[in-house]
Every structure is written in C-alpha cells, then in structure tokens.
Amino acid sequence: MNLQGRLKNRVAVVTGASKGIGKGIAEGLGEAGMTVYVTGRSSGDAITPLTIEATAASVDAFGGKGIACQVDHNNDDQVRALFERVEAEQGRLDILVNNAYQIPNPPAFSGKFWQHPISIWDDQCGVGLRGYYSTSVFGAGLLTKNPGGLIVNISSRGGRGYVFNTAYGVGKAGVDRMAQDMAIEMKEFGCAAVSLSPSKVKTEFILEQIERGELPPMDPAVAQSVRLSGRVIAALALDPQLMERSGQILTVAEVAEAYDVVDPDRE
Fold first, then answer.
1. What's the CATH code, domain 11-266?
2. Worst-scoring range by mean pLDDT, 12-26, 122-136, 191-205, 241-255?
3. DSSP codes joined into one string, the chain
C-alpha cells in the first residue's frame, strides 16, 4: 500500500514521541504527509538525539511537518494547553495517538507483585493509563468536530495475557478497554477508537535491554521497525470502512497484512 503523502493537510498528535515507538509513529505519519505534533518531556535542540525536536525534524525529513511540544502528561493543564494550541494553529485534529508511558526505574521484568514497590503501579497505570484518558478527554472535543477522527491507544499483548508483572497487565488491559468504550461514545460523531499492539519492536530501550541480557534476543524475521506502527495507523486512517474496525483490539502485524503495509526495514 502506497501511503506517501496521502494524508497531507491532516493533523495528528502523538504522545511520548521523543524516542521508541512514539518516534516511529510520528515518522510514519510524516511519510503520509501529516502535520504531527510530537509530545514528550525530553526537550533540547533538533540535532540532539532522543528529544521531541529531533523527532519533529525527522517528521519533516520524511515528508510531513513536525511540531515539537514539551508536555508532561501527568500535568492536566499542560495537556489542555496542547490541544488549545492545536486548535488555534490548525483548527482540526484527525488522529490522536496515545503512547506516552513511564517505564519503572529499575524496569520490572519479573518478580511477584508483592515484591515490587507500589510505585510501579503509579508508573505503569499513571501516564500509561490515566494519561491516555486525560489526553483523550482534552483532545476529543477537537477530534469529533469532523467525521473520520481516530484515537489509537498503543497497547501490548500484556492486555490479553501475562507479561512482566501484574501492574503492567492491568495497565494494558485498561488501555484496551478504554478504546472499546471510547468507540461506543464517539460513534455518533463518525469517529473511531482502536487499541493497537506492536510486537517485538526494535526500540532503543528494548535493544539496550537485550544487550544487557535482561530480555531474550529478537528473531530478525519478525522484529518490527518502530516506523511500521506509524504506517499501519496511516493505513487505518485511510480506510473508508474504518468505523467497522472501531472498538477493536488490533496488532500491528495483522493490520499490516490486511492493508499490505511493508515494514521499512524490509523494503
């Protein structure tokens, strides 16, 4: 499926986009020609890696227009101001991608729930669950002004089966259910919501953990580029039958297959 420039003049917000999947999603939407507001707490200058400015510059390089917005998604006032800015500058919002997430420090890849500090719940169900909800609350008024709007909650297989720890699973299950219920409430406005799970993605964090021996190596035959997630979101937005998918819990792999979207690492 050729996505190049097909979403020109449309506007997206991608949260947690200074690195990882968020950065790849912003780049993939940039390929489709979108104006992409990229949020995160990591700010610097455009030549410094892993900042929202660097992501915005990368969106530009891929053919879109990147706009860096420093936002702490634990701060409702900052989130509200983000969408006020989008409305003032663009007058519309077509895609909202909820991706911002707080990884516990140190990461909790194993162990029993009573062996972890309670703070891992706040990390994984704070920005990663409440933050999705608050961002959607402040963005929905603008998103639902025009039919065709789309909310994408980035999730994982942890919402459907045990992965890492109890708090992680609860957070991801909540993300999935949130998309299902938002789909019901936005249906009358012709807007959709889905939960989307990448799998075995080559993010900076995952590759670093593999190198440290904290996670097993990924099979190169199935490992996904971070930009593939952005391409499949663009493909979803272009589907005239999008509302039929609204409320679904999807994987990047199945959407890529359905729309014949090619991983940029396999072109």
1. 3.40.50.720
2. 191-205
3. ---TTTTTT-EEEESS-SSHHHHHHHHHHHHTT-EEEEEES----TTSSSSHHHHHHHHHHTTSEEEEEE--TT-HHHHHHHHHHHHHHHS---EEEE------SS---SS-GGGS-THHHHHHHIIIIIHHHHHHHHHHHHHTTSTT-EEEEE--GGGTS--S-HHHHHHHHHHHHHHHHHHHHHGGGT-EEEEEE--SB--HHHHHHHHHTSSPPPPTTTPBPHHHHHHHHHHHHH-TTGGGTTT-EEEHHHHHHHHTPPPGGG-
Residue extents of the structural domains in the chain: 11-266
In the predicted structure, residue 91 carries a pLDDT above the cut 80: yes
From 132, 133, 168, 259, the catalytic residue:
168
Quote the pTM value. 0.90
Active site residue 101: no
